[in-house]
Amino acid sequence: MKAVLHKADTRGDANHGWLHSKHTFSFANYYDPQRMNFGVLRVLNDDKVSGGMGFGTHPHQNMEIISIPLSGDLEHKDSMGNTTVIKEGDIQVMSAGTGVQHSEYNKNKDEEVRFLQIWVIPNKQNVEPRYDQITLDKADRKNKLQQVLSPNKEDEGVWIYQDAWFHLTDLESGKSLTYDFKKASNGLYIFVLEGSITAGEQKLERRDGLGIYESNPVELKASENASVLFMEVPLQLG
Length: 238
Hints:
This protein has a single domain (2-234), classed as Jelly Rolls, CATH 2.60.120.10. Helix content is 0%, strand content 54%. It contains no helices and 22 strands. GO terms for molecular function: metal ion binding.
């Protein structure tokens, strides 16, 4: 097994007052040439937005943008005519394609909203922009993998223009599971949302990330109750 470890406290730290963001990979004013991406996984931002604040209307092109709310309510508006709110238990995807503009605001004035902002480089350029969101049943991830994203429209979860699969699990202390790669040439990025786990021989704590490749399958065990996001992605662009 080959692996790259990103401990939580080594991430880029951007505190703008209304926004406090932790960057696993280089983003905005945080730049580390050794941490540009993990394959086509380009951005993994762990964001906290103050009450009533948010990201004003701004553009994107040719990127698959995934948002996973962790707490609070995030209000989304875009140039495709979508106005909606996403909250814990939801997953949102936007294929920017030929170009889209959107805004994301904390809907509540009296509490912060926390969410993961994830960018995946697509395998098709200049597609027609599209938006989707779904609500997940958290019971479907207790001590097992719940697929939340794939390349296939007919599969569970949302879909994107890339050979990528995302899963979530809520793993009870002492429980184990095995992750089998969908494609042997892909890599797997494991991000611990809460708790602690052991992946292979590597112990991971809250908000640690571990990129694994040339290994199949991957064995995980929870050292305490843990919530974990798995992102299987191609390691090569194209």
